[in-house]
Amino acid sequence: MAVVRKRPQLNLHLPLPESTDRRPRFPPPLPLPLPLPNNNNSSFSTVDRLSDLEKLQVLGHGNSGTVYKVRHKRTLATYALKVIHGDCDTTVRRQIFREMEILRRTDSPYVVSCNGIFEKSPGDIAILLEYMDSGTLDNVLRINGTFSESSLANVALQVLNGLNYLHTHKIVHRDIKPSNLLVNSKMEVKIADFGVSKIMCRSLDPCDSYVGTCAYMSPERFDPDTYGSNYNGYAGDIWSLGLTLVELYVGHFPFSPPGQKPDWASLMCAICFSDPPSLQESSASEEFRDFIKCCLQKDSSKRWTVMQLLSHPFVNQNR
């Protein structure tokens, strides 16, 4: 007689289907330009009008708008200009306003800086951002190949410093991944894209589970009853950082073979039921393997915090 092992019940909080009602429900307009934090960028005060800028090239397209590389006509300073169309989807519009609010609050060398927010035309918004000339870590991986441990220690240290700043100011990013980490030719790494981030009112404020990129979500976001009932987002950022570092080291997303894009259900099962990715069978150093293990604890209460990881030998090897 076959023995059937009882499978633990998953209490997955699946998102409800989107409403078919497409009438706009945009947030109320904010006064533009918004007040911004003091910024050490010497060219910060020179950008008063969009007409002061000239477009150099398109950096990227999306359903909500376009990102341009621009140059200030007088100072020749270079920026990235994110232009969002007024007729974009309601959800995207809400994310843009959330990003604007967070950019208005932040001032850290490890977070991409905002140099101005303008109303380009009725309904359209333009956000002037720091230009990072090497693009994203995802771009660097595709062009230059996998990262060395020394480079990853440098990346990890900078991202942890950025997360330490954000978490100290009660901001949870919720979408840490290679394509949201910008880098320049000096290998300075900065956290960007705060569209699904959250400003916490209290340290244990609940976060919506299904925001961000599914592939980099932590187990407790799918099944909080099993992997951490007090989901607050901070530990989720650490899990995403761990996956990001493994991806940059092995050259592909850790939960799937090279070249394969798993579907949502496969990802959910892999994250919840499979062992966390590890580097035990690789040539990685003991310090790096241990650092990844500290990031990728499935039980969120056992995952190391930002402050604990900042003291880890792996990120301190280049100091």
From TrEMBL:
Example of a GO biological process term: response to other organism
Enzyme class: transferase
InterPro entries, per the entry: Kinase-like_dom_sf, Prot_kinase_dom, Protein_kinase_ATP_BS, Ser/Thr_kinase_AS
GO molecular function annotation: ATP binding; MAP kinase kinase activity; protein serine/threonine kinase activity
Protein name in the entry: mitogen-activated protein kinase kinase
Annotated catalysed reactions: L-tyrosyl-[protein] + ATP = O-phospho-L-tyrosyl-[protein] + ADP + H(+); L-threonyl-[protein] + ATP = O-phospho-L-threonyl-[protein] + ADP + H(+); L-seryl-[protein] + ATP = O-phospho-L-seryl-[protein] + ADP + H(+)
Keywords: ATP-binding, Kinase, Nucleotide-binding, Phosphoprotein, Serine/threonine-protein kinase, Transferase
Occurrences of domain Protein kinase (ranges): 53-315
Coiled coil ranges: none
Amino acid composition bias (Pro residues), ranges on this chain: 26-36
Pfam hit, one: Pkinase
Keyword Phosphoprotein found: yes
CDD domains, alphabetized: PKc_MAPKK_plant_like (cd06623)
Chain intervals for the UniProt region annotation (Disordered): 14-38
UniProt-annotated binding residues for ATP: K82
Family, per entry: Belongs to the protein kinase superfamily. STE Ser/Thr protein kinase family. MAP kinase kinase subfamily.
EC number, UniProt record: 2.7.12.2
